[in-house]
Design goal:
The complex is a heterodimer. Helix content of chain A is 46%, strand content 19%. By secondary structure, chain A is an alpha+beta fold. Chain B has two helices and no strands. Classes of the chains: A alpha+beta, B mainly alpha. Chain A binds chain B through residues 1, 4, 66-67, 69-70, 86-90, 132, 135-136, 139-140, 143-144, 147, 151, 164, 167, 170-171, 174, 177-178, 181, and chain B through 1, 4-5, 8-9, 11-12, 15-16, 18-19, 22-23, 26-27, 29, 31-33, 35-36, 38-40, 42-43.
């Protein structure tokens, strides 16, 4: 009761983040859906007694609990012309049946005060029908199985001959009647799939099941109507219906599990909203389909919604969740002027944004394209599974035939049931499911952490990796320089190191050279003011440095400043490995700036962690020897090769592989394509790469290096799960088949075993979806 | 025991009838919003 009382009068509680009541302009925007052309997009016309009515699917916002569902139902039902309403609080959706002759969508969409009702333009009718059909099959098989057991029970508990032959036959007839729905309806998916496989001239996993069912039903039917015939009087309707029930239960659970785990990939891909609120020229908002958006439109995004396009915030302050796009799991603040990405979630407040980029230009679409590539990989996994299953299935058919032949001379009925048990007990699914289910689950788990697996087979190689090869620039280091030290060359009384950096940065602002940018960045990081005296006549001497006139001001005399390499500032060039620039004036050099490459966050910690795990770590770079050696020393790497062409890198990796090592190559994915292709597993790191061009097995858009460890760990776990599942399937089949062939295994037990066996494999794979966080790396390096 | 010859066929018919009721329940969406029905009883009728 209290939940109903708490949320019923929504508009009166603005503190709960309640939606503002619909304004007149909002109401006007809904009239767009009064056009009959639009109705198909969110529902369908009804036929029969309700002809002239439409059944529409509606999204409900502002709903907190199931009591809200009733509020909405009542409010809508009071509208003239609304026939029936069903609100699902779990799905936050409603189904409304309304009479097109009496009302229009805009009227009843606005009829529930305190809630916002929007047409659900992405409604998928087929999906719900499919789940209903499945539930229905399962229910029928469960009910029929129960009833058949009732009729079969007397025969189990009474001594033979106690029940009259006529009554026994009557019971068999009753069982037969009730197994008709099971055979004709519940088992239909198995028959249909087996028929499709036969039609395509291949042997499928449903064939043994279908054969077993047909044999058991045929023999039992013959025994029912001709108890004195060849098949004897034994009937197996109870075993048969139980078998179907167990199988359907197993499949249903399997489907639910797979939807939850591997399906998370799909969930990520279907993240963009289908309808958005677009600002009209008069300042009001109207709901339009997302595909009608154009660059430059202004849209409103409510908390909890996903952004439909890349854009920039015009109004409002909020936090966003960009975990899919960048792997950053913390909520990120976004204010006026900052950029937001399509596919990220608006978490805390309503914002207005201008659309800057749509469709294929967005990072989100690039990620989706990558995932679709991975989805193309799935059939190859299925082929792999098929290759294991096919010889196995032939063996099963052979074993069943042998079992039948073995018993035939003594007891044909028993021989048949032994054959049925063999057909039923063997579980090719467990064998062939082991790899795909584990790999798909892992790929889904990684995707949720911002890692995109493009080639699913990579998981198999990942487990054996013993050598990790890094590219340097853009992978371990950022593609920019950083200021490491400022040294005064000559002590002056009016200039200190801070003043020198301030002047150098002021000069450097006039250039885009990487060194200049590093100096400017260093000055900004130290929060230095720009010098008060302006610089004049700044000129860039290409390849040498910059020169400018510092105008005299209070306390500081004017001078001509030079910033550049040693010769440019009147010094002998040194042979240091480091990048060095000098600041000088007319009196000579003032200060020296030492620059080096900026390590990516976590690079040092990652390499330490990899070595701790006993992996060999190597560095390959196309850069000159000096900086590469300097970096290798800093990171403590023994093996580093410099001045490698793409071809050299590839040869290096090939040589490692020839020496028996398995190589994980970590690069930026853009200019090291050949070496990434050569490595056993390749990982492209970095946010600067256009995702679709990254030629790697795994792509890491966030550039967080710690993910290398996550990837290795997940690969290890995946292979462990695959091995467990295969071992389980092998043991199960090796035990089950002989037992069934000897006739010691009743068909119902065989069915239960088979359902449990494939369920065990899927459950085992589902363990991979659990996120096991690694110990955080020490990043202060 | 002759009555069994009537009762068993009757029970088969009854079972098939129950299957029919189940069909109605599934296809009219009885299993799709289970929570809301529990709340309905708590509401004032107006």
């Amino acid at each position: 009761m209290n939940s109903a009382a708490a949320c019923a009068p929504l508009p009166a509680q603005p503190s709960r983040g309640a939606l503002p009541p619909l304004s007149a302009s909002d109401h006007k925007s809904l009239t767009a859906f009064d056009d009959e052309q639009e109705w198909d997009a969110f529902g369908q016309a009804l036929e029969g007694p309700e002809a002239g009515c439409w059944q529409s699917q509606v999204l409900v916002e502002g709903m907190h609990c199931s009591a809200c569902a009733l509020n909405i139902e009542q409010a809508l039902l009071q509208q003239c012309g609304v026939r029936s309403v069903q609100v699902s609080s779990a799905a936050r959706r409603a189904r409304v049946v309304w009479d097109a002759a009496l009302t229009r969508p805009s009227q009843w969409l606005a009829a529930a005060p305190g809630y916002r009702l929007l047409p659900d333009l992405a409604f998928d009718q087929d999906l719900r029908l499919e789940s209903r059909r499945m539930l229905w099959r399962w229910l029928v098989s469960a009910f029929c199985m129960m009833q058949i057991m009732m009729y079969a029970y007397p025969a189990y508990i009474t001594p033979p001959g106690t029940i009259g032959a006529d009554i026994e036959q009557l019971m068999a007839w009753a069982c037969w009647m009730l197994s008709l729905p099971v055979m004709l309806f519940c088992a239909q998916p198995f028959f249909a799939q087996a028929a499709r496989d036969l039609w395509a001239r291949r042997i499928g996993m449903d064939l043994p099941v279908a054969l077993g069912l047909l044999i058991a039903f045929g023999a039992s039917s013959a025994a029912t109507f001709d108890p004195h015939g060849l098949w004897g009087a034994a009937v197996y309707f109870d075993s048969l219906s139980m078998f179907v029930f167990f199988l359907l239960t197993g499949r249903w659970l399997e489907l639910r599990l797979r939807e939850r785990t591997a399906g998370s990939l799909n969930a990520l891909m279907q993240r963009l909203p289908h309808s958005v609120e677009r600002e009209q020229p008069d300042g009001s908002f109207s709901v339009v389909a997302a595909r009608r958006l154009r660059v430059g439109d202004v849209i409103r995004v409510l908390p909890g919604q996903a952004f439909a396009a890349d854009g920039c915030v015009l109004e409002g302050q909020t936090h966003v969740d960009e975990s899919l796009l960048s792997g950053e799991s913390r909520p990120l603040p976004r204010e006026v002027g900052s950029a937001v990405l399509a596919g990220s979630y608006n978490l805390s407040a309503t914002v207005r944004m201008r659309v800057v980029q749509l469709g294929h230009g967005t990072r989100y679409q690039q990620i989706v394209a990558l995932m679709q590539q991975a989805a193309l990989d799935k059939p190859r996994l299925a082929v792999l599974a098929d290759r294991i299953a096919r010889p196995f299935l032939w063996a099963v058919l052979l074993a069943a035939a042998l079992a039948a032949l073995l018993w035939w001379p003594t007891d044909p009925a028993r021989g048949l049931m032994a054959a049925v048990a063999v057909l039923v007990v063997t579980c090719p699914c467990a064998l062939s499911l082991a790899t795909p289910s584990a790999v798909l689950t892992s790929a889904g788990a990684l995707a949720r952490q911002g890692m995109l697996v493009r080639r699913l087979q990579a998981f198999q190689a990942l487990d054996q990796v013993d050598t990790v090869v890094f590219d340097k620039t853009g992978t371990l280091t950022q593609a920019r320089l950083g200021l490491r030290a400022t040294t005064m060359v000559e002590q002056r009384e009016d200039v200190d190191a801070v003043q020198a950096l301030q002047w150098a940065a002021a000069l450097a602002r006039h250039s885009l050279h990487p060194v200049s940018r590093a100096l400017v960045a260093a000055a900004e990081q130290a929060q230095l003011q720009r010098p008060q005296q302006p610089l004049e006549q700044v000129r860039e001497h290409r390849g040498q440095g910059l020169q400018g006139e510092l105008v005299a001001a209070a306390g500081v005399q004017g001078r001509t400043l030079r910033l550049g390499r040693a010769q440019f500032c009147g010094l002998e060039p040194s042979d240091s490995e480091q990048v060095q620039v000098y600041l000088a004036d007319e009196q000579g050099p003032i200060a020296r700036f030492d620059l080096d490459e900026v390590l990516r966050e976590g690079a040092q910690a990652l390499i330490d962690a990899l070595r701790q795990r006993g992996l060999r770590v190597q560095l390959l770079s196309g850069d000159r020897a000096a900086p590469v050696q300097a970096l290798a020393r800093r990171l403590g790497l023994a093996q580093a090769r410099s001045q490698c062409s793409a071809q050299d890198k590839r040869e290096w990796v090939r040589a490692e592989q020839a020496a028996g090592h398995r190589v994980l190559m970590v690069g930026d994915g853009l200019n090291d394509g050949p070496v990434l292709a050569q490595a056993d597993v390749s990982l492209a790191v970095g946010a600067s790469v256009p995702l679709a061009q990254a030629q790697a097995d795994v792509v890491l858009p966030s550039g967080q290096l710690q993910a290398v460890l996550v990837l290795l760990e997940q690969g290890r776990r995946t292979q462990a799960v695959v091995r467990q599942s295969l071992a389980w399937a092998a043991v199960y089949n090796a035990l089950g088949v002989p037992l069934a062939a000897m006739g010691w295994l009743p068909a119902w037990l065989a069915g239960l075993g088979m359902a449990l066996s494939s369920l065990a494999v899927v459950l085992n794979a589902a363990r991979l979806a659990r996120h096991r966080p690694l110990a955080p790396l020490q990043t202060g390096c | 025991m002759d009555i069994l010859f009537l009762l068993i066929p009757l029970s088969v018919l009854l079972a098939l009838g129950v299957v029919g009721v189940l069909a109605w329940a599934v296809w009219s969406g009885q299993f799709e919003e289970v929570d809301a029905e529990a709340q309905r009883i708590l509401r004032e009728r107006d």
